[in-house]
Amino acid sequence: IENGLVEIGIPLKESKFELKESDPKKWRNYLLGVWRRNQNKPEVAELYASKLAIARHQVTQFCKQYPDLDLPVTFDSWYTQPAFCRYLDQELKVPYVGTLKPDHQFQLKSGRETVASFVKRLKQEHLEAITQDQTPLFQKITIPYKGEKEVYYTYCRTLRVHNFGKHRVVINFSRPDLSDTPRIFISNRLHWQAAGITRIRRHRWPVEVYHQEGKAEGLDQYQVRDFQAISKHIGLVAVTYSLLRAASHDLDLQQKLQRQLKYDFDGSRPTSLRRVTQAQALWSLGSLIATQISLGKSLEEVLSPLLASVYI
Prior knowledge:
By secondary structure, the chain is of the alpha+beta class.
């Protein structure tokens, strides 16, 4: 970004250059700030692709490739930003379900109120209504998810969200006494109901699960800088994770591993299968060493090629 900004002629403050050595993180944030302030210029926008820019590009490409599909887009609170939501609604005209943070604000008749304050007030009114045998504010809903039923206690209204405009707002608790942490969703489809919005948002979780599981396979541990090399690394991690997911449905393989290792495990979970495959690899290595020694080779002869491969 630095070289690109200089070549284009965007000035950088001389006083900030010392941050390159003293505080690289602040230096990076400074460069990104300069980039954001000038990103309306095409030559500047091309220098750096933010996560929001990548998301816009991916959704746009999907809509172009599948123009007949009317599928909703759902995302977490980081992507729930006014410009991104307006782009989806006004430019692509696709339905979406976003996620609000506690410090977002509602524009009410009484003025602005943070999400956290609004939810706290609703919760108190709901509990008071129950003690007085009145209609509660949060209603029980049930949604299907992976062959099971999930229950939520929900408040659903159309409200104005500061900087976002009018949206359908859903506030969900998992416990009937509303003692857990709420999740707050918004949608640009004002006629949608709580169950539908919740069901759509619920399907974002598998993406987060893959991100967490992918880290266990080394998703964020690449030690290369070339984009093509990084792409290959991510591809290999995805293949590894896919094989683990496939193994969770391979009963013959699971039974074979259980016979070899004499170990009971949950074959439906990638985390369990990962540990089992590591144990099986160790078992195979031990079997190889034992076999070679039984054939008359010394331990040094067996281990030498294995140790040499570590340094290749």
